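User: My instructor asked us to take a sequence, write out its structure as C-alpha cells, and then describe one feature of it. I'm not sure where to start. Here is the sequence I was given:
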Amino acid sequence: MKKVTKLILVGLLMISVGLLAGCKKDNPSPNGTGGGSSSNGTPTYELRFTCTSDNPYLIEVDGNSDIIQGNSYKTYYLEKGTYSWKVTQQSGYVFYPTVKDGTVNLNADKEIVFP
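Assistant: Let's start with the prediction itself. The C-alpha cells for your sequence are:
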C-alpha cells in the first residue's frame, strides 16, 4: 500500500512540474498599457469595437470580418499602425443599414463605439 501511495504522489508531483513548466509569462507592453509585443518585437495594442445597438453588425478591420450581436463587443490585438475599419448593420433597419467607417492610428489601446 505504501508503494502505491508513493507512486501516486510521485506521479502528481511530475504532473504539477510539467504544468508549471508549460506556463509562460505575458510580455508587458512597451508603454505600460496594452497587449504586449508580437513575435517580431513590434508593440501590439487592443482595439475594441463596442456595439450599443440591439442589432447585429459586421465589423471589418485588418482583413478580418466578424459579425457581433447587439450590445456586445469584439476585441482585436493588432500591431502598432494605422488601420481602416468599417461597421455595417446587418438587420433591424427600414431602408438602409447604418454604416460607419474610418481609420484609427493604433499607438495605444483604443475603443470604437457604434452606432
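For the description part of your assignment, you could build on this observation: The first helix runs from residue 2 to 21. Try explaining in your own words what that tells you about the chain.
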